[in-house]
Amino acid sequence: MRGSRSARHLRTGAVTAASLGVFLRYGPALSSIAAIRRGPYRYLLGEGRDDHLALTFDDGPDPLSTPLILNELDRLSLTATFFMLGSMAEANPSVVHEVLSAGHEVAVHGNWHRNHLFRSARTIRYDIERAVGTLGAICGTTPTYFRPPYGVATRPTLLTASQLALKPVLWGAWGRDWRRLATPTSVLHDVKKDLRPGTTILLHDADCTSYPGSFRATLGALRPLAELCEENRLQLGPLREHGF
Ligand SMILES: [Zn+2]
After folding, report:
1. What is the pLDDT of residues 24-58, one digit of tens each?
2. Is 58 part of the annotated catalytic residue set?
3. What class does CATH assign to 40-241?
């Protein structure tokens, strides 16, 4: 429901600075949500229409965990955006095809899961270009969205994305589902903390950079998350339907 009272109850008024590595690069003045929302980097938060939440997964495709996530999304009649690593896609092209044939959207998370903060502009460009090439070849289309590993976007990151016509998207809420102690309950709790209408949600469909098996917490959180959205009359879907 657009602007409904129940939807407004989801507002928390704050996104943690830690979830927005990009802003730490530009100094502490930008690390509060008020500054972020006023500032020039607000567009990176992936804020969409008020009756919609974008559901996104990072770090796949993984032959063990990604199909489990796909099955659960199918049971819940949900579609999402998968920010894939080029290296993982190259090793598991059939899983990329599974994602696509289930109606989901494939996006770029880089070729390797490396923090851009201390990397050269040339290395960053090579990494992103290689991922775009790999994913483009497997998918048959050029991806639209890009999310840097760890949410750390430096100036060369954003410049390269722009030159490759990729739209950079971080997130406004996350499930902290990579942790050893993550459970479905904790994932849902953490997502809810920063949820507001139009938020982009970050989860993980693979544990290649997370605690082994942590994707099971994500898996268990999907149904209650879907129910929460239904109760609040918020649609949950991919970035291409997010209206931003
Ligand atoms: Zn990642």
Report:
1. 443 333 334 445 555 777 888 999 999 999 999 99
2. yes
3. alpha beta
